Structure formats: structure tokens, C-alpha cells
């Protein structure tokens, strides 16, 4: 069982979807970081279900901080936060135990935990566990922002519709990130956003679901972050991103697109301007040899279609070892990508806070 990640700054997750609460412990934080409850609530809103394209399970998501904060600042000791589950409806799941929901962890969880798992609503595997990730991420994101590091993601593709890619760099990219952080459906082109929402609603009408690809950019990072081999920037980030339920692919820079490029196009030429070294293009996504090169960090995350769909599906009853059919009840999003993006931003903040603290020490995040 491993629910902790991080070397210098670590995050531990606990809880189940239909238990009393979900929560997190952040350890290794610098003392004196701002803990702004309004900012945390704003980030929680970005993850929360809203409107017709989201699940009917509407949780208030009030974050209760139990330790590690005094007078609105971190103390430097473990910060424990909890979010009570209030809108769970376990009746939706009671009749179906033993029927493996396709695309979910019911069968694998049963095999691993020998039937002792709290299976209700996906238990510990539920998307609900991303709520404390976002609460913890908000504290780290605020600290990084104060230090000049900005993180933002948009839905690059969803339901067969594409958004425009990020602006290359500089103030245009900073403006893109600023705008995205205020949006609950994060797209750079509003027309593409409207078409994506229509595709999500259409999938819901057809008792189906859609996935997509998210694109993330980070600006303001110093060159020199990353610990090769095994704690390279790409290794840490992909470890964290693949922990997010429904994430099935991660690529940095041109990623799989490198397969079709010649070296002469794949390399980013270096230049120095006014004493600052940068690259003219950024196909490598701001990372060389697992270490940041000072250019914006760029990566994409593929999110699968929501596994809970309301069609009849083939499955097994793993308690009886018999073939069966399942028709789901409950409340589910026809897409989760719009809610996953603040989770991706939060785990990006964890990876970067950890790498900065490993390199510069505990006080690196203080920004003063
Ligand atoms: C923010 C978020 C919310 C999610 N909500 C749902 C949901 O309402 N219904 C559902 O079937 N899956 C939902 N998921 C995805 C499942 O939790 C996930 O696909 C499942 O646990 C199996 O894990 P895997 O896809 O990583 O293999 C959500 C994921 C995230 C990131």
C-alpha cells in the first residue's frame, strides 16, 4: 500500500468515496507559507461537478485544516486536511457488489484486498480522492505563484473537438495561463469549448461518455531542476499524473510526435539574449536530460472516457465467478477531463515544489 509521494515535500492521501471523509497530509513544507481559504475554495470549485456535463453528486467540499497552520500560515509541521463526504448515496452500489464495473477497479481492488475493500462508490479508487489532492495542491500552487511559477492546463481535445494550442512563450503564454485559471471549463478558444460541451451532452444522451487530451504549461521555472536518473522532471511528473484516475497517457514536448521528425527539426536551437540562455523552439517541452532548461515546461495528458456509462455491458460476477450483465445506476460525469485538469495542475505543483525543495532546501518555497 503506497499512498505517499515526494522526497522533500510529500503528500499522503487517505479516505474512501463513501466513508466519513477524504483527506491529505502535506509534509516538508516551509514554515510561513500563506494558507488562504478563499484561494483553496476557488480551486475546489474548479474540480467540483457543475452544470449538465457533470455528475449529479454535488459535494460542498469544505476543507477542514486539522494541523500545521497557525494564523493563516504554515507552521512547517505536517499539514493535515480533511473533506467530509456529505452527498454519498451508497444505495446505488449496494445491489451490485460482485459485478465488476468495466473500466473500474472493482475486480482488481477485490483481488488485491481480498474483499475487505470499501467498494462503495469505487472506495479508495474513486475520483473523490482527487478532492484532497486539489486542496493540498492549492497551498503549493499559491506558494509557487508567489515565487513567479505559473501552472495552467487547458482541454486541447475532447469529444472530437480541438482547442488552439498554447501560445509559444512570453507574455502571450502568461496571459493564456492567467485566463485559464479563472475558467471552470478551461479552453483557449470559446467556440471550441462550446462544441466540446455539446459533444459531452450528446454522449450523455446516448448513455455514453467521452475522453480527451489536456495540455499543461508551466512558466517561471529556473533551469537546473530535476534529479537524474530516476527523479527526472519527466519521471516524477509522469509518476504523479498516472496516479490520477482515468489518466492513460502522458507526453512531454512533442512526445510521440518525435517519431515523425528528423533530428534537424526535433532539436531546439540554443540562443543567448541579454545574458539569458533559451531555446528558439520548445519541442522538448522545457526539459533536457531530465532537467529543466528554463523554457516553459510543456506536457499533455490523455484522459479516458468516464467508465460509468448507463448502457447494458458484459461483465462477470467475481464473487460467483459467473458471466453476467451490468446496467449501472448512480450519478456520473459523461466526461471527467474538465474536472481532472485542476488535479493535474495540483500534482504538477507537488512535483515542482518537491524538486525545488530538494535542490534549494526547505525554505525554497517561501518566496521572500
Ligand atoms: C476528477 C475525477 C472525477 C471522476 N469521476 C468519475 C465518475 O463520476 N464516474 C466514473 O465512472 N469515473 C470517474 N472518474 C474516473 C474513475 O475514477 C477511474 O476511471 C477508475 O477509478 C478506474 O481507474 P483508471 O481509469 O485509472 O484505470 C473520475 C476521475 C477523475 C480524475
Care to give the gist of this entry?
The chain is of the alpha+beta class and 368 residues long. It has nine helices and 18 strands. Flavin mononucleotide binds at residues 47, 55, 104-105, 122, 125-127, 130, 244-246, 304, 306-308, 332-333, 336, 339-340, 343.
Question: Would you mind describing this structure in some detail?
Answer:
- This protein is of the alpha+beta class.
- It has one domain: 4-Layer Sandwich (Chorismate synthase, AroC fold).
- It has 9 helices and 18 strands.
- It has a 5-stranded antiparallel beta sheet with strand order 1-2-3-7-4, covered by helices on one side.
- The longest helix is centred in the last third of the chain and has 24 residues.
- It is globular.
- The two termini are 38 Å apart.
- The model has no long low-confidence stretch (mean pLDDT 94).
- Bound molecules: flavin mononucleotide.
- The site of flavin mononucleotide (FMN) has 22 residues, from helix 9.
What is the count of helical runs? 9
Q: Gyration radius, to the nearest Å?
A: 21 Å
Total strand segments:
18
Task: Name the helix and strand elements from N-terminus to C-terminus, one letter apiece.
Answer: EEEHEEEEHHHEEHHEHEHEEEEEEEH
The CATH architecture designation is: 4-Layer Sandwich
Query: Could you say which structural class the secondary elements and strand pairing correspond to?
Result: alpha+beta
What small molecules are bound in this structure? flavin mononucleotide
Question: In this structure, how is the largest beta sheet organized?
Answer: 5 strands, antiparallel
CATH superfamily: Chorismate synthase AroC
In angstroms, what separates the terminal alpha carbons? 38 Å
- Strand content is 15-25%
Q: Roughly what is the average pLDDT, rounded to an integer?
A: 94
CATH class: Alpha Beta
Amino acid at each position: 500500500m503506497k499512498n505517499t509521494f515526494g522526497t522533500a515535500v510529500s503528500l499522503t492521501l487517505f479516505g474512501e468515496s463513501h466513508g466519513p471523509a477524504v483527506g491529505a497530509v502535506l509534509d516538508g513544507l516551509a514554515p510561513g507559507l500563506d494558507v488562504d481559504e478563499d484561494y483553496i475554495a476557488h480551486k475546489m470549485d474548479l474540480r467540483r461537478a457543475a452544470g449538465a456535463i457533470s455528475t449529479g453528486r454535488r459535494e460542498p467540499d469544505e476543507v477542514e485544516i486539522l494541523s500545521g497552520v497557525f494564523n493563516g500560515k504554515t507552521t512547517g509541521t505536517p499539514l493535515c486536511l480533511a473533506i467530509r463526504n456529505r452527498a454519498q448515496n451508497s444505495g446505488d452500489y449496494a445491489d451490485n457488489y460482485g459485478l465488476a464495473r468495466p473500466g473500474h477497479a472493482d475486480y482488481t481492488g477485490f483481488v488485491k484486498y481480498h474483499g475487505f475493500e470499501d467498494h462503495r462508490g469505487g472506495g479508495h479508487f474513486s475520483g473523490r480522492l482527487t478532492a484532497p489532492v486539489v486542496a493540498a495542491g492549492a497551498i503549493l500552487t499559491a506558494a509557487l505563484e508567489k515565487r513567479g511559477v505559473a501552472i495552467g492546463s487547458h482541454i486541447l481535445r475532447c469529444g472530437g473537438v480541438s482547442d488552439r494550442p498554447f501560445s509559444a512563450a512570453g507574455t502571450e503564454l502568461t496571459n493564456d495561463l492567467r485566463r485559464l485559471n479563472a475558467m471552470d471549463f478551461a479552453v483557449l478558444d470559446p467556440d471550441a469549448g462550446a462544441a466540446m460541451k455539446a459533444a459531452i451532452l450528446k454522449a450523455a444522451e446516448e448513455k455514453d461518455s467521452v475522453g480527451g487530451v489536456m495540455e499543461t504549461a508551466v512558466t517561471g521555472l529556473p533551469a537546473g531542476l530535476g534529479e537524474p536518473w530516476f527523479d527526472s522532471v519527466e519521471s516524477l511528473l509522469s509518476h504523479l499524473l498516472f496516479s490520477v484516475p482515468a489518466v492513460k497517457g502522458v507526453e512531454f514536448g512533442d512526445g510521440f510526435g518525435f517519431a515523425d521528425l528528423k533530428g534537424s527539426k526535433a532539436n531546439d536551437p540554443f540562443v543567448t539574449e541579454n545574458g539569458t540562455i533559451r531555446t528558439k523552439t520548445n519541442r522538448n517541452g522545457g526539459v533536457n536530460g531530465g532537467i529543466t532548461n528554463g523554457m516553459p515546461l510543456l506536457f499533455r495528458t490523455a484522459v479516458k472516457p468516464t467508465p460509468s456509462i448507463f448502457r447494458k455491458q458484459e461483465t462477470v460476477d467475481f464473487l460467483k465467478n459467473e458471466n453476467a450483465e451490468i446496467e449501472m445506476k448512480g450519478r456520473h460525469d459523461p466526461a471527467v477531463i474538465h474536472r481532472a485538469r485542476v488535479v493535474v495542475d495540483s500534482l504538477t505543483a507537488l512535483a515542482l515544489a518537491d524538486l525545488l525543495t530538494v535542490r534549494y532546501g526547505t525554505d525554497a518555497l517561501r518566496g521572500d
